[in-house]
Amino acid sequence: MYRGKSITQLREELDSEKVTPEDLFSKANQLAHYFQDDYNSFVTIIDKCKYRKSDSKLNGIPYALKDNFSTTGILTTASSNILKDYVPVYDATVYKKLKDAGAILVGKTVLDELAMGGTGTTGHTGVVKNPWDKECMIGGSSAGSAASVALGIVPFSIGSDTGDSVRKPASHGGLVGFKPTYGRISRYGLFAFASSLDHVAMFARNVKDVAIVTDILKGKDPNDMVTLNDDDKCYADLLDKDIKGKKLFYIKEMCGKDAYKDIDDKDLSEVISTFHEMLDKLRKKGFIIEEVSVDKTLLEAIYPTYMVISCAEATSNNSNLTGIQFGPRGEGNSIEEIMFDARTKGFSELIKRRFILGSYILQKENQEKLFLNAGRIRHIIVDKMNELFKEYDGMIAPCSGGPAQKFESTSEKLSDRYLILENHLAIGNFGGFPSITVPYAMIDDMPVGLNITGRVREDDLVLNIAYKIEEETGLKDIYSKVGDIDV
Ligand code: GLN
C-alpha cells in the first residue's frame, strides 16, 4: 500500500527494493486522477514519469508543486485566467533542486488566484475541498498542495507562504507545514506576490520529512540575492536534541485561557482548552512555557499592516501581467485599451480589490501615511518579538480560532472577534522567522494545528522543538482515509 505513507516510510521501501520510483509515481498518478473531481487538488496532473536518479533522500519520492512555481514546458497558471495558457521557459530553483534530487513531480496544484487569499476558493479552475470534510475549505492559498498531501496522494508538496498560506492550510489539513527563515530557500521562479514577505514553504506528514525537504532546498542561490549562505547543518540529523529547559511563550491576549471568555463559540473555546491541555503535557516533557502580555493594539495591527504592505507590493509585482507579454491578448485599439481589457477579464474580484487598494496605498500623497507607516509598525512588531526571543526560544500558539470552516461561512472578511488568533501567523513573515505548524488535536473529527515561531536563522531549533512536540500529540503521519481506493 502506497497511499498515505511518509517520505521516511517510502525511503525504506525504496532502499530495500520493495518498490521502484516508477511504481510510486504510477500509484500517485492513479490517486491524483481518482480524487481530482471531488477535491480538485491539481491544475495539471503529470502522466509521464520523469525521473532523474540521484543518491539523495528524496530520490524516487513523488511530490506536488504549487502552480506559481515556474516549470519549463509545463503549464503554470498561478490559478489565474490571465496566465491560463502560460508555459514557462525556465525552472524555479526549487523545481530544479527537486529534479536534481530525484524527486518525481506528480502535478501542479491549485492555489487562490496569484496566491492571494486564504480559502482555496478563488482559483480559475475551481474550489479545493477539504479531505477531512468535503463541505469545508482546506484554506489557502496553497490549497491544492495541502489537499494532495492530506488525501495521501503524495508524501510532501511545495507551497508558498506570504502571510500564512502554508501554515494555516496545514492546520486545517492535519499536516505539518514549515516556512523556514526568509532567504533560507531561493524564491527564484516563484511568482512574486509580496517580495518582502514571500517564502517558499512545504507540507509533509511529519516533522522529520519537512526537515529532509528543507535540507534539499536550502542554500545560497545567485539568482536570489537574499538567500542565506550560513547553514550547512543537516536539519534532519538535529531533530532529537534534548529540549529540557527550552523556553516558550504564549501571548495572553492571543490565546490565554481567558482571552475570549465573553465570546460564545464552541470551536474557539475548544481550541483554547485543547491548546492549554497540550501546554501542560509539554511542560511535563521538560519545556518551560510562560504567559507574556503584549499590547493588544499592536496585535490588532497585524492584519491591517499585512494588508497594506502585501497589497502594495502585489500591485507593483503583478504590473507585468498586462496581457501583452503573457496570457490571452486583450482587445482594443491602444496599449491602454488592450491592457484594460486583459486585466478586466483576467482577474477575479478579489484580485481587483487588492490592486485598487495597492494602487491607492502607493499613490504619492498616500505613501508616507500608509505604506511607510505600515513598514514602521511592522518593525515595532518584529522588535517586540526579538525582545521576547532574547529570553525565549520560541512562541507557541494555535494556528487559528477553530478547525476549517464550511464553505458557506467563508468570505474574505474575517471576524473581528478572532482577528488576532486568525492572523498572527503573518508575524513570521514580517520578521522572516522560521515558523512551523504541527497538528495537535481533533475537534469534531477535524484537525487543528499549533504553531511554533522562532528566532531568525535558527531553523534547526524550531524543527527540534516541533519534533519533540509531535511526540506528544499522537497525530503524526495522519491523513484522511476518505474514498474507496486501495493502492
Ligand atoms: N491569507 C493571506 C492573504 O490573503 C495570506 C496569503 C499567502 O500567504 N499567500 O493574503
How would you sum up this structure, described in words?
This protein has 487 residues and is α/β, with parallel strands linked by helices. It has a domain at 7-244: Alpha-Beta Complex (Amidase signature (AS) enzymes). The protein is built from 16 helices and 13 strands. An eleven-stranded mixed β-sheet has the order 1-3-2-6-8-7-12-13-11-9-10, with helices on both faces. A two-stranded antiparallel ribbon has the order 4-5. The longest helix is centred in the C-terminal third of the chain and has 28 residues, at 364-391. The chain starts with 6 loop residues before the first helix and ends in a 14-residue tail after the last helix. The model has no long low-confidence stretch (mean pLDDT 96). The site of glutamine (GLN) has 12 residues, from loops.
